[in-house]
Specification:
Helix content is about 20%, strand content about 25%. The chain is built from 11 helices and 25 strands.
């Protein structure tokens, strides 16, 4: 029989219900959320961290997607990869209370076997990872013995010199900060404690090395609530997640990415955006060009936990696990931006060869350009990339002046800055348009009526009923020659 929740104990209270029923589908009103942006990221600088169920999930992502998270992981109150082995009894027992030993050697063997079979990425990717582990001495939800076993597990894959394990602060089961939250030894919602220690900063500096000082003032970037249904529906995931994007990262600078995973009873349905905004990560992100991604479980997840024991899917810890694959897809989307082109603006832009319907635009070549785009005002004129240094723009109106700019394009499809503007005028007489009722067109000599209908002079195009209510625009293209149309 599954044990009931214990008062004041986050983990057991949040886990035991998983054995009873399959996960429910999420039925909430969909928020008006943005699409997750495509940014320019250095994909060798992607890391992950998490607390409690998020800590176990961070280990899963780090190990299963080690090619993606090769830079490293931070784990707060988590445990070894595949610790529960698909059993809620193991999850609440050995992986939290440590009431029986965790078979670390077996989990290491499973990890290697799954890597060989392709269920997870090759373990060799972990050799250069950095790892930061944290366990509070007053954490009675995930005992320090569990984190000790995680340290032993990582020793099979990550050099000991690359691992930091801090376990000497009397904190409860929580994400700790140096200035925000409940008293340090507390284990209670929102599970953010002020212990006088900047845990987010310590983790990020272990993973990335020396960083610029954090921003203790007003943040300069943007919080984005993004649509998670583009990556997954159901499976215990919320319809929206959050990201923090430093200002430089939204304007084309190359940035790092850190994925932050909340614990049980810490998603936005439980505590709003407190975990997103009050855990200290964003202050370091702002001054070090690190994008922060905060995926969210939803009300359909067992007690808002991440799936680290199989409540949603038997493959929960493999790359094919639905929550795992969804987070990976979010990471891929965020890093899909095109780096800005390192190209100069074309010079010597000029027009020539004017006809009544075309102009030739020419320019000087740009070093490193794979081709060029020609813009007529703000609209790209060419359908395909121009390989040479001239372009004939056709289908123009006679007697009309047009303005052009040109941009060089690199091999990645990124455009450089725009050239100076050049203008040119087509030959002939500019078309003149008249908009009036059909009756007024006939009295002005631009049309005639026959049988109660109206026809344009010259082209004889039917304009509709001859009355004062039907309005038509006629374009004069020659002496006493009119067509239905508009002028540029």
């Amino acid at each position: 029989m599954v044990q009931p929740a214990r008062s004041g104990r986050l983990g057991s209270a949040l886990l035991f219900a998983a054995a009873l029923t399959p996960i429910a589908m999420l039925h909430t009103t969909v928020h008006a959320a943005s699409a997750l942006p495509a940014l320019v990221l250095d994909k060798t600088q992607t890391t992950v961290s998490g607390l409690s169920s998020g800590g176990f999930m961070a280990v899963q992502l780090h190990v299963a997607y080690s090619a993606t998270f090769a830079k490293g992981a931070g784990v707060v109150a988590g445990g070894p990869f595949y610790c529960a082995e698909g059993s809620v009894t193991n999850a609440t027992g050995r992986c939290m209370a440590h009431n029986t030993s965790i078979p670390v050697a077996t989990l290491v063997s499973t990890t290697k076997s799954w890597a060989t079979s392709g269920y997870i990425d090759p373990v060799a990717n972990l050799q250069n990872s950095k790892v930061y582990l944290y366990s509070g001495t007053s954490d009675n939800t995930v005992k320090q013995a569990v984190m000790n076993d995680l340290q032993t597990y990582y020793a099979s894959f990550v050099p000991s010199a690359n691992v930091v394990y801090k376990n000497n602060i009397a904190s409860g089961h929580a994400m700790i900060t140096d200035d925000t939250g409940s008293s340090c030894a507390t284990t209670a919602s929102p599970y953010i404690n002020n212990c006088g220690f900047d845990l987010a900063g310590a983790m990020l500096q272990q993973l990335y090395g020396t960083l610029n000082a954090r921003n203790n003032g007003t943040l300069g970037g943007s919080f984005i609530e993004y649509d998670q249904t583009a990556f997954i529906t159901g499976h215990g995931m919320a319809t929206t997640g959050w990201a923090y994007v430093p200002a430089a990262c939204s304007t084309g600078s190359t940035c790092k990415l850190h994925v932050v995973l909340h614990g049980c009873k810490q998603n936005t349905a439980d505590i709003g955006t407190q975990y997103v905004k009050n855990t200290g990560y964003n202050r370091w992100a702002d001054t070090n060009k690190i994008v922060m991604l905060y995926p969210q479980t939803g009300t359909g997840a067992t007690n808002s936990c991440w799936d680290w024991w199989g409540y949603d899917n038997a493959n929960y810890s493999k790359k094919s696990g639905p929550q795992m694959a969804a987070v990976k897809a979010m990471v891929d989307k965020l890093g899909s931006g095109t780096p800005p082109a390192n190209l100069a603006a074309p010079t010597g832009v000029a027009t020539s060869g004017a006809t009544a319907s075309s102009l030739v635009v020419s320019w000087g070549s740009v070093s490193g350009a794979a081709g060029y785009n020609v813009y007529r005002a703000a609209t790209k004129a060419n359908a395909t990339l121009v390989a040479g240094t001239s372009y004939t723009d056709t289908g123009l109106a006679s007697g009309t002046t047009y303005s052009y700019t040109v941009r060089a394009v690199d091999a990645n499809g990124a455009e450089g800055p725009a050239s100076a503007t050049a203008t040119g005028t087509t030959t002939g007489t500019a078309a003149v348009c008249f908009t009036a009722s059909n009756y007024a067109h006939t009295t002005a000599g631009r049309a005639y009526q026959s049988g109660g209908n109206t026809f344009a002079n010259g082209s004889n195009q039917a304009m509709g009923l001859w009355n004062t209510f039907t309005t038509t625009t006629l374009k004069q293209t020659g002496p006493n020659y009119y067509v239905i149309g508009t002028c540029p």
